[in-house]
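ok so heres the complex, two chains, lmk if somethin looks off
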Amino acid sequence: MANQIIAIDLGGTSAKCAFVRCDGHLLHQWTVPTDNREKGRFIVPALIDSIKAKIEEYKVDKHDILGIGMGTPGTVNVAKKTVKGAYNLNWIEDQEIGQAFEQAFNLPFYLDNDANVAALGEQWQGAGQQMKDIVMITLGTGVGGGIVIDNQLVHGISGAAGEFGHITVDPHSDQMCTCGKKGCLEAFASATGIVNMAEYFKDRLTSPSPLKTKMEAGETIDSKMIFDAAKNGDALGLKIIDQCAFYLALGCSHLINILNPGKIVIGGGVSQAGDFLLDRVREKADAYLFPPLREKAEIVLAQLGNEAGILGAAQIVNLAEGGYE
Amino acid sequence: MANQIIAIDLGGTSAKCAFVRCDGHLLHQWTVPTDNREKGRFIVPALIDSIKAKIEEYKVDKHDILGIGMGTPGTVNVAKKTVKGAYNLNWIEDQEIGQAFEQAFNLPFYLDNDANVAALGEQWQGAGQQMKDIVMITLGTGVGGGIVIDNQLVHGISGAAGEFGHITVDPHSDQMCTCGKKGCLEAFASATGIVNMAEYFKDRLTSPSPLKTKMEAGETIDSKMIFDAAKNGDALGLKIIDQCAFYLALGCSHLINILNPGKIVIGGGVSQAGDFLLDRVREKADAYLFPPLREKAEIVLAQLGNEAGILGAAQIVNLAEGGYE
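and the predicted structre for the whole thing:
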């Protein structure tokens, strides 16, 4: 029986590709640069050519391949295997990804959103520890996520389930989100939101702060600098991280009170702040959790880093084709 | 092939029982009083005797029965078919419901929480219109609910998914909930919460209000009186309904932003206020919804009333036994 999967994690700069054994063991990995010129029309052909070459190079028998799984930015129609609105790829209108791969390889092909496949990867091989129900929150430039229930991804009726960045964590806030509304989790817990909060609080804070001094001298700051300042006891840095942790805790409490998952897995660039952030989130979340759920829901760091997407892309093939139980 | 199901919707005063055709058509309905004395030990035997008598009375061939489905208050272990913490039944510790029914009838038996089966009933035969993903919120003495994703109930890892009453909709509120924490949706949108808000606002409102006058004269009020006052333009009544609708809208927005369901179905006694309440909820929810989801998520009234539980109890048998596709 087929025992390996071709997995693709497509991003704006490059695609990570891999042969993955059905049990999750990574066999060979490589990357393909993403060329998004001319409405991204070179992206899929480049992936197909590269995979064909690797099948040759590693002398893989096609009968050993269970299928191809791919995670992509944008809004995915899982049934139709199409994607649109992947702006960093210049894929604005529907792209017939499934058709292209199925024609090229005559193998089963499955497509899902990149935040979703990362959640599935963590559930299968990472921080989710194969618990049947987990939620992953990805804190990057924006805030995204994915929901796994009974080992399956939740998509919702229009493929938008897991848009945790746009939970309104503060209906009274004036903090604008890129989506056009106010008080979104993304406005407080994304890398962008954290920097915006620094702008907001620097003029309102009277305590001395080296971070504030840097900003007033015109230095460009990023979220890592804010976390580093906070770790050094900087008043402005601590104020920002406190706000970020508060809203993240409230958002986590909503997810736990609604879904009763086994784990909330926190990933993405901002999560590199590690337990310095998560300890604050855990501490604050308790007050907002339904008491019987307080001990049931662990908030943990993601474990797989960049490999979550590749492994999740492999697992969507396993789940659909029954490759690994 | 078996074409009917025995469905039970157990409540604190009585159990509704029915023979239901696998397509959802109700054949015969009756009720059995709930005798919760002596730790509720008479409840299950009374149900079993009554069902046996009805099988005789209607001359039902046991081969025509696909199985027995039951909704119950309390915390259900779906796999073990046990329930505990059903305080209105005096079922504090684990009750072996499945064992008792399976021994008595030698038929497949399935058990789930009453709020869950009501959600499934509405999804199958009511306001959910068989959309694969819906959420139901029940506004009664408390606030409960159920989640249906891909036509299946979501239970979470400890059976507590759907505890919407304990979403913290206002982390800065002092309004206590029965669960021990503050700012729960239940404190603003349950019948109890609505009456408590009347107590809270009556001393803070300076406008004239017949409702306030009644309360000051010592009259006992209930949530229906508050809605009726609001419908007549009473300032206190309107203030309370406005708060209730605001928090309910925020809670609905969380559910929609997280799960992207086809419908949010609002049921329970408080929902009898109808569109007077729901129009306010819909209007307020928009501001908190991720813009691409604004047109996708309808907030609607439940349609099945008391029959939701019976039909949902039947549908859990269908889903498990493949009785109706």
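quick notes: The mean pLDDT of chain B is 95. thats all i got rn
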